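User: Sequence in, structure out. Go.
Assistant: Echoing your sequence, followed by the structure tokens.
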Amino acid sequence: FHRIKPQLPSTHGAKYHEFEEGASGPFGEDSPGVWKGRDTVIRDYKRVFIKYWLFGDYSYMIQTSRGRQFIARVEDVIKRSVPGWYDTHAVHSSVMPSK
């Protein structure tokens, strides 16, 4: 289990959240960071899609022995998986997040 202290007071009143290995973590208002606008999210996700196109499960690179070796070397250097995990939380524009 991982213990994570919420950035903001928890909407559920908990001091800590506990998550099993592989869980995505806090949700909604309990997640760290600031809400981004539509244009910023689109710009950020263009980069995410490029990473998946280059290194993802269906990329040309992952289908070749040399490509898999290259990806493994990159992961060894940066100490995380490539392209990585992106966990997205959204709120409809008609709803204002509470502060």
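User: And one key feature?
Assistant: The helical segments are 38-55, 65-78.
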